[in-house]
């Protein structure tokens, strides 16, 4: 009977906890470290969630159309430990310039953040290239 109980415990772990571990990915598994990108726009939304913070950058093209880029960065604890808050990332609606690496799937407007530079010149170096 004890053996049956331990099998159930392992099954419960995989169903409840293991799925989130499998869902997590390495940065270079999703993003192309060889495809660096720098884009300017306005941060319109910040999703302060784990395992990584996501935010939307609204980029205005030369033709006036606005494209929403999804940017991903470090976990919330990493930024909190550095003293960076969700409100600080928003940038008060001012334009920002973001440097990072593009997603491997080029059909997506998606990238990983290295650095965010704000209109007044201050910046957050969130991760390092290579």
The share of residues in extended strands comes to 35-45%
**Beta strands, count:** 6
Which fold name is given in CATH as the topology? OB fold (Dihydrolipoamide Acetyltransferase, E2P)
The gross shape turns out to be: globular
Q: Identify the CATH architecture.
A: Beta Barrel
What is the alpha-carbon Rg in Å?
Answer: 18 Å
Largest sheet: 5 strands, mixed, barrel
* Count of discrete alpha- or pi-helical segments spanning 4 or more residues: 4
| Elements, N to C (H/E) | HHEEEHHEEE
Unreliable runs = 1-24
The CATH superfamily bears the name Nucleic acid-binding proteins
* Helix-residue proportion: 25-40%
> How many domain regions?
1
Structural write-up:
- The protein is of the alpha+beta class and 130 residues long.
- It has one domain: Nucleic acid-binding proteins (OB fold (Dihydrolipoamide Acetyltransferase, E2P)).
- Helix content is 28%, strand content 40%.
- The chain has four helices and six strands.
- It has helices at 2-23, 27-30, 76-81, 86-90, and strands at residues 31-47, 54-60, 66-72, 95-103, 110-118, 123-125.
- Strands 1-2-3-5-4 form a five-stranded mixed beta barrel.
- The longest helix has 22 residues, at 2-23.
- The protein starts with a helix and ends in a 5-residue tail after the last strand.
């Amino acid at each position: 009977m004890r053996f049956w109980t331990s099998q159930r415990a392992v099954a419960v772990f995989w169903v409840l906890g293991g799925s989130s571990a499998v869902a997590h990915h390495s940065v270079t598994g999703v993003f192309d470290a060889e495809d660096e990108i720098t884009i300017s726009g306005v941060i319109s939304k910040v999703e302060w969630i784990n395992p990584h913070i996501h935010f939307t950058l609204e980029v205005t093209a030369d033709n006036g159309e606005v494209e929403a880029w999804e940017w991903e960065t470090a976990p919330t604890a990493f930024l909190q430990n550095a003293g960076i808050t969700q409100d600080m990332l928003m940038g008060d609606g001012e334009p920002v310039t973001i440097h990072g690496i593009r997603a491997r799937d080029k059909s997506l407007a998606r990238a990983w953040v290295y650095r965010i530079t704000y209109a007044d010149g201050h910046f957050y170096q969130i991760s390092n290239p290579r």
